Amino acid sequence: MGWLCWNCLVMRRQQPTRRDVLLRFFHGLFAHDGVGLNGHECRVLLEWLTVDPVLMSSKPWTVDPLKNTLLRLHTSTVEGKPVTWLSPQTTHTIIAVLREPASVAHLTAEETSVLSALAQHLAEWETNPESVPHSRYGTGWRYRQRALELTSHPTVLSRLGGPFHLFQCKVTVLGRLRDPDES
After folding, report:
1. Tens of pLDDT along 44-55?
2. pLDDT < 50: residue spans in the chain
3. Tens digit of pLDDT for each residue in 62-78?
4. What is the pTM of this model?
5. Which of these, 1, 3, 10, lies nearest to 174 by C-alpha position?
6. CB-based contact 73:33 (threshold 8 Å)
7. How many CA atoms are closer than 13 Å to the CA of 168, on its beta-carbon side?
8. What single string gives the DSSP state of each residue in 57-112?
9. What number of other Cβ atoms are within 10 A of residue 72's Cβ?
10. d(CA 95, CA 55)
């Protein structure tokens, strides 16, 4: 993901929050057919998925059990693996589980906003309500970019332009983001 800014490539990956993990899901699903998480991100996701035992009996979890995924996340956390790949289907299941009331009750308003935006985009990419022509844009990142541009209900992620503009972010020597309008 060389098109991400320094903050997303390094800082957010070493000390991730739940919001950062959600953004990794968005970036991964936007650009690829899978999401790669490092050991730190796996720890955050593992803690989030196990915060309430009720989540394991939720409908999304019972339809697509995440027991093996939890084991992989635990192994990645303990061993500090540089990357653990999650398939798109597993990522969709995780997002559905995280949207369960038992999980949402533990979220901040900002995390809830990003989770809702992510779920909206996944639904739009699947249902194509704006009728983006696949013959012109295909089904990959160009299609997803166009779907974000045409969304009738822009989310926080839509207004930010999605991950495809992050390569333009300027950073200081210390890795802090600079205002794009700053000369």
Report:
1. 999 999 988 899
2. 1-2, 164-169
3. 999 999 999 999 999 99
4. 0.79
5. 10
6. no
7. 10
8. GSHHHHHS--HHHHHHHHHHHHHT-S-EEE-HHHHHHHHHHHTSHHHHTT--HHHH
9. 19
10. 12
